[in-house]
TrEMBL record:
Entry keyword Magnesium: no
Native species: Anaerobacillus alkalidiazotrophicus
GO term, biological process aspect, one: carbohydrate metabolic process
Cross-referenced Pfam families: Glyco_hydro_4, Glyco_hydro_4C
GO molecular function terms attached to this record: hydrolase activity, hydrolyzing O-glycosyl compounds; metal ion binding; oxidoreductase activity, acting on the CH-OH group of donors, NAD or NADP as acceptor
UniProt xrefs under InterPro entries: GlycHydrolase_4_CS, Glyco_hydro_4, Glyco_hydro_4_C, Lactate_DH/Glyco_Ohase_4_C, NAD(P)-bd_dom_sf
Site, as annotated: Increases basicity of active site Tyr: 110
Designated name of the protein: 6-phospho-alpha-glucosidase
Family affiliation: Belongs to the glycosyl hydrolase 4 family.
Coiled-coil region: none
Record bears the keyword Glycoprotein: no
Record-annotated Glycosyl hydrolase family 4 C-terminal domain positions: 196-416
Transmembrane feature ranges: none
Binding-site list for substrate: 94, 148, 284
Amino acid sequence: MKKQNLVVVGAGSTYTPGMIMSLIEEKKNFPLKSITFYDTNAERQEKVAKACEIILKEKYPELESFHYTISKEEAFTDVDFAFVQIRTGGLAMREKDEQIPLSHGCVGQETCGPGGMGYGLRSIGDMIQLIKEIRQYSPEAWILNYTNPAAIVAEALRRAFPEDKKILNICDMPAAIMVSYASILKKEIWDLVPEYFGLNHFGWFTKMYDKEGNDLTDEIKNHILNKGFLPEDSEIVNDPSWIKTFKQVKTMLTDFPEYLPNTYLQYYLYPSDMVSKEDVSNTRARQVINGREQRVHQLCDGIIANGTTEGAHLEVDIHGCYMIRVAASLAYNNGDIFIVIVENNGIISNLQDDAMVEVPAMLTNRGPKPFAVGKIPTFYKGMIEGQLAYEKLVVDAYFENDYNKALQALTLNRTVVDAPVARNILDDLIAANENYWPELKKERELAT
Ligand code: G6P
Ligand code: MN
């Protein structure tokens, strides 16, 4: 097995120690020659990197090289895989994305609704720039992108790099949900074969099988309807916010029993309920800043101070393992099946070809080979088309510097609907993002 050279982009992330633990756990499936960390924030990266260096020395002695850098040339030269997880504006801007819509009575969420638009219009420019830089030094590298909002980023990259077949956008949510299914079924996630369709953070499992082809869908549904649903992955199992989110799946399945919903659909199906349960001074970003971020930084400080991982609470999580198994399937032509984000091109036969859809695909060294979904029923088609129009209009607004497209996008979004509310939110987001967003011009409005 050829050993891979990996760069982690956005390595200052609080997810990085979990990713390193996952790389160690998966070293037989995805053996590495080198790991390089890259981040634009040297200080944030250094803390995580110094701890990871110690972890790797102890648990991955066969790794030939580990280093961290803020030099693009150093980071992106001779790379086989780039794992990209950047957050333009950091958690501070995430908090604004959540608070601004909430202050207008709408869902305040990282990737759903106006928050997703705020984040999307920040991410697109940096992602395009980053892909160009990676390609300058490693034209053949696989670029696996986790950067959010994945739906909007994927659409923007589709337009910016139409010929580049080695960029793959992925989300760990379907996998995190499958970890819970696996627990219900007393199986491993890797034993399960899903059927799924939708957009990122906007999809449904239609079937779940095991490798022998047994249909386990009803067993999962019955369990959820009778006993409820909980997170099981190590990263989220004890997190009150994620517990609440997973519990909501029972309500969704009770109201819409046909398919098993992605957890993110709660924001689109129950927006008023979601808003009523939020506290604008303690949104998810604040909880992450005071929770995961502190916990991971303390963990890193402890490892650095002790010079060893002994006594440190380190865990493998699905976020890392999923990305790594995806990479392994691409690198070694394993042909395993994963849910990934690809251009529709007839996969969902009654949806436009140029939609970026989230579906299962066999992953080979020639890229993802998605399976046909066929026609989807009216309810899902209607939901998806509204959301898709929102996503496309956000990306139009970015490339065309068009205020009206952004306003149309928000008005179409199920979490907003009211045009005057959309306008107020948009204007607040513009003010909050003045250092990050492209300028949105109102000329068309004035002309009419
Ligand atoms: C899931 C989603 C990611 C999202 C994350 C947020 O993993 O798939 O796209 O960024 O949740 O989690 P947090 O704990 O930061 O709210
Ligand atoms: Mn996601």
